[in-house]
Amino acid sequence: MQQTISSTFFIPREGTDFDDLYRRVRIMPLYSFPHTKDLNWRIREHTDRFFVHIDFDAFYAQVEQRDNVKLRGKPVSVGGTGGGKGIVMTASYEARAYGVDTGMSVLEAKKICPQLISLPCYGPKYESIMLNLMNALKEFVPEDCIEQYSIDECFADLTPVAKDFFEAVKIASAIKRRIRELENLTASMGISYNKTYAKLATKLQKPDGFSVITQENKEKIFSMPAGKLWGVGRRNELRLLMLGVRTIRDLAGSSERMLRQEFGVNGLVFRKLARGEDTSEIFRKERSEKSLNHYHTLSEPIYRPADVKTEIRRIGEYICRKLRSKNLVAGYMHLSVRFENLRYASDLVKLTNYTSDDREIFNTALSVYRRLHKPTKEMKGRQFGMGVYDLHTDLKEKNLNLFESEPELPYRALDRLKSKYGEGVIRVGIGS
Amino acid sequence: MKFSVTGENLVEYLSKVITVVPNRSPLPILDNILFQLEGNKLQMTSSDLEIFMRTELDVKGGRDGSVAVPAKRLLDITRTLTSEKLDFDVNEKNRITIKSKRGKFTLGGEPSDEFPLPEEKKDMNKIDIKGPVIKRFLSKIIHAVNTDEMRRNMAGVLTEASADQLKIVATDGFRLSKIIKTDFKHEADNDEKIVIPYKTAQHILRLNNNEDTVIEYDDHDLKISFDSIAVYSKLIDDTFPNYENVIPSDNDKILRINKHAFSDSLVRALIFADVITKRVRLEITTSSLQIRADNPEIGSEGEEMIDCSFNSKTGTEDFDKTPFVIAFNAGYLLDAVSQMETEELNVSFGNPSKAAIITPTEQKSGEDFIELIMPVRVG
Q: Which pTM value belongs to this model?
């Protein structure tokens, strides 16, 4: 069976000769931490389940070092265009020793580590590696027990195949061996009785780590700083510090009321996660999508009407292609503009037809845009976004129109061309 | 300002003008109704900036003046005092005191000069229409008006007066509804076309109790008066689509069917139709119509059979061998069918991708009414 690379983590970028090769990668996971709705509030904690969390070490950098012998043992960073622009997405362990970190600008990184080799990000390569891993995992556990959490991390629920921790560990180490022979890459793994602890266990030993957290040795988790917990970022960590919460142990022992006051219902989730009471299951993507969104932040803010038009059209085409790939049509659309000063303008309209037609989406988007506050030279537009809602299966039916008879366009054939030769290879001419 | 009025009288007019007061207004002053008293005439004006409504009632005047009164609160109070005489007194600080037989209520008003006023224009073009005609005509075609925000040029009712006929047309691009008054006399040099916004048309329909109506207009504005109410509104100045061209004249296949049987079936079909196109499939033989609806998303389907008569003017096709098949949005079909007033109705078809025309078997005298629906193309 031919497997297509999911577009969840990738946003095609056009305008260069290497569009298809160097695609921008979204490192963000599908969700940051379990939602209250994902937790099973009827039970306090899982007692006899076994989750494994797999995380490739310095993923992009490791892949580049694997593929190029000359890079091995040297500080390498992946991300940016190579010319000094952009940010570091991953730094190899050699680079990390100098203090190079994810999110740093490449220029900044070169300052603290002049011998740093900065490489552009080659999206499809990393994604196909992850895809191979996901396929390999199917040899060990049923398909619906596997969850891809982000581009370099995944979870697997070993409960159906393991009787106890001893067996779970045996299977996990077999997976680890398999990754090595399959891709010649190292991954750190954490095994525990819930997803949160499995993820935290991975962090205990890196790179090429293998940690097991059971009810008996969960003390190891407790001494980790609270900021390591998923969902607790740098800002939340500070807020927790103000409350006197430093470690996961502190978080587990703090009062529900205090956390609720500070973080709302998420505070309660944090506390439960810290206590090992994460009862969420493997996250299965909902079969029917409720909406599709695409936001694009420009590195150079724009204000000229022609530029804006191009940008809106590009986003619209992307959304339509995504709709068609999922065989859906949309009933509503939403357009937003974020300005340089972070001010925001947006509007939602009902589409005339349920559609996935580039022209219709583009024309509607333009007329929505006309009603919005427009970017000016003084206040340029930094981010453009579009969302479509009220999605239904495309039945390929259309109420004919009295006044317009637009020919059907072979969009699906165009989509196939685009995914083979790149986004810029062909596009539908839309009248001015 | 000082006057007295019977509660019943006030509430009757107040409940009419309040229909224009916006629910959530960007301008707080629009939550009010403007009261203007001159002698024994009290004018009440409401507005949402697009539409203004003005009504005039007789009161026993004391001292002339004007004030903007909180609309909802005033109606809530007076609604329960309809049998009483109410004395209004407004001081220079716009405090409104209402005295009834037993009580005294005080409300804070707003200065009247903040309230926007409609522009009174002179020398406007004029169409006179009998009350029952405008009400009946609007109610027959208003369902076809385009209500989505995108295509503004169809978001209203086209009113076209020529020397001997009055045409009222609405369309949303997928269907069209047209009614002509054929016994109409109008003194005009040339044909006059205006597009009345949907909301304005709804106000006329709701408030007009068969009173004779005067439509006055120029290039941009519209004033419609009937009874003691005047509605001021902008006209839609986008060009209404050229609808005459799209009405097919060569539909040669005629279906004659009982109206109630057809509309009842459509109501049921709508339950089983898919939510996007609301498609029903009609399969027609010379003596029966099969209506089929299905929703593949949730896996439901339904079908029904009704007696009918169906034949082609050319007479070459054998519909019993190969039935005529066409698909429509059941909602559109139902809207159109329910506007027919005869026991039976005629539907004429050309081919499965051309518009169908629905007409009553007999037109009312002095009227010509048709409904046009575009089919759904099944891919």
A: 0.68
